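Aim 2, interim progress: modelling of the N-(aminocarbonyl)-beta-alanine-bound target.
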Amino acid sequence: MTTVIKNGTVVTADLTYEADVLIENGVITEIGPNLKGDEELDATGCYVMPGGIDPHTHLEMPFMGTYSSDNFESGTRAALSGGTTMVVDFVLPGQGQGLVDAMKGWHNKSTMANCDYSFHMAVTWWGEKVFDEMPTVINDHGINTFKHFMAYKGALMVNDDELFASFNRLAELGGIAMVHAENGDVVAELTAKLLAEGNTGPEGHAYSRPSQVEGEATNRAIMIADMAGVPLYVVHTSCEEAHEAIRRAKMQGKRVWGEPLIQHLTLDESEYFNKDWDHAARRVMSPPFRNKQHQDSLWAGLQSGTLSVVATDHCAFTTEQKRYGVGDFSKIPNGTGGLEDRMPMLWTHGVATGRLTPNEFVAVTSTNIAKILNCYPKKGAVLVGADADLVVWDPEKEKTISASTQQSAIDYNVFEGHHVKGLPRFTLTRGHVAVHDGEMRTQEGHGQFVKRPGNGTVNRALSTWKELTAPRPVERTGIPATGV
Ligand SMILES: NC(=O)NCCC(=O)O
Ligand SMILES: [Zn+2]
Ligand SMILES: [Zn+2]
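Predicted structure of the complex, ligand included:
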């Protein structure tokens, strides 16, 4: 059976043109005028774009004494509803647990996915077992990205010596280092002080994680990555200090990418000062929401290319789970949702305001990350041979975001009441029409794991440069005799 998307305008990261798109067996087989297929999808007035890729999700994540409430079924259903066709989740090994063992657990959880997905590996502890298993994770299991938490002291955090050892190993193996960049030692000190002073409400979370803790850790990670010769991806870049470090590194030729979240771009710190405890606690995440100056910096980064990708860090906890932290903000599970709303919110606040072009929208929601993660052009492209992960985007379709109509399993939405204009008319996952003009037609288990090999082009360039500039002894003649 073939499907044809007719009468639309194809929008990719670099081109805009009128064409029909023909799909067979989940793959794009032809792009051009007057195509015919068994099933026709009318894209009149719409943009045909690569489906979104969200490179930062935590589905059914064990964290802070509970599990995030969206699993791979509800999470990927939410993703498709908003035009996202691939998610990348983080495998989190327990202390002392092997990487491959932990990965098996994630494969078991993800069999229910409605769209394609991939994994990043987290380095939550350091030892011989981790060192030894890294090559198999990259070469046999297709995971080339390894995340390091510089925060969450006493739980997921790793120290600088561990970072440097892991980064060196990744450089050698052709992997990419990722960091959650916040100074965990300082956060722990500030948290203890705030609690001792009676600052126990959700606003204490924001006070305990000022932008300096993020700027310092981002800069430190960049310098450590540079010394190791490994490419670095900084997740949830939320403030000017972190962006400034990334911007400077890029200008110096370092291979560093920054990832702002849709939440940080569109919601601000005033949320934490809401008189309603639940309202504020539902928005507790790390890093916390910032002020308008930081938001402007993030938008400017997307416009200029110093920031590369917009993600969600989707990690959804119910109100009941958030209430674990009544009387002590440090016990509020950290995380917010966003999978369903990332694309419509970014279109509304980015493209419709003139901050981003439609092509830049495609770049930051899909193509850039496909290239960074080494799965382009299978993903992130409208090209013959690419997977038919597509969104037919209707720029005139509008709605008001509400938890009562969302796909996510939780009981609220941090974007509640926000009006968006620009929504999917159709979302296709490997050719299957999962969203059909407002109707959900997802297929549980349709999603497949996407392997991403190591040694992408940036790794190869870095290792060539490293080899060229490696310290070498100077060849000398006439060396004087040692003095007595
Ligand atoms: N971001 C957050 O608050 N929760 C999810 C875990 C993480 O990415 O730090
Ligand atoms: Zn994080
Ligand atoms: Zn995260």
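The first helix runs from residue 72 to 81. The CA atoms of residues 285 and 334 lie 4 Å apart.
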